[in-house]
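Changelog entry

Holo records now carry the ligand SMILES as an explicit input line rather than a separate metadata file. Below, a converted record for orotidine-5'-monophosphate, shown in the new format.
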Amino acid sequence: MNRSELIQQIHQKENYLCIGLDTDAAKLPPHLKDKPDAVFQFNKAIIDATKGFCVSYKINTAFYEARGVKGWEAMEQTVQYIPSTHFKIADAKRGDIGNTSAQYAKTFFETLPFDAVTINPYMGEDSVRPFLEYNNKFAIVLGLTSNEGAHDFELLHVCHTRKKQEVHAEIGKHHLKVYTEELEEEEQAKDEPLRYLYEMVLEKVSSWGTPDNLMFVAGATRTPELAAIRRIVPDNFLLVPGVGAQGGSLKEVSEHGLNKDVGLLVNVSRAVIYASAGEDFAAQAGIAAKGYSEKMQSFVAHR
Ligand SMILES: O=C(O)c1cc(=O)[nH]c(=O)n1[C@@H]1O[C@H](COP(=O)(O)O)[C@@H](O)[C@H]1O
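Structure line, unchanged by the conversion:
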């Protein structure tokens, strides 16, 4: 699915809800637990009950990979079952040296029919590039995440580092250090305002692609920073997880994060798929998804 088709789906369905299929085999309702393909049966029922109230599904691969071959089979069955009208995200948080990333891209874009995959950008451009080389597919790069650990690196204040070049000179008996122009630049850099590392990541990564192949993750628990994120990447879609179980506010996310094309996919996982632990799990998931979708209606109408 390309960007304009996604925007069209959002307007048609009047929501920007992404439902997270973080399906934990240990949390399946008792009546499904003994079925050989219980995870797929659970996902299928959730998709049937919610597809009218969302535009996207996000499969968090961890919950499937943890179960080995059976998990990969359930993931494949699930992604094949998601209707073609819905944007399919593999939340795999990949990224490695170029030739390895190329294999990850092949996994999710060729072997499996995902539209997008989440990427950890820590290893830099060559680790992201292979995901950008596909038409109508997206790399969704971690920008500012919703978890506490975001403070460890993403929210560090940093400044541009510049090469300090020292020139040494021997004049008579004296050893002198002669500083070059580059050092003067470094002196100037001290006056530049410090920036968060995540801001520099957004700025740099956005130059590697376009809004047609690149989205960013911004946590719903980070609403104070959403306006700054929008200034750096005004046109890219943002995948915003953290509404529901993590306490993020859909209203605040929408107020700060929407752009002229809507530009948001707000993900809710546990608060939808585990809305009930009983036999009515799918019906309750449908009700929860409808609730989020209805709250999004007026925001879409104003775009
Ligand atoms: O990349 C993600 O999807 C992600 C980024 C982030 O900053 N925070 C975050 O919670 N996520 C994912 O979004 C989902 C949130 O799930 P719930 O908290 O249950 O709605 C999980 O699959 C997380 O792995």
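Spot-checked after migration. Residues 3-157+195-301 form a domain with the TIM Barrel fold (CATH 3.20.20.70). The CA atoms of residues 76 and 112 lie 7 Å apart.
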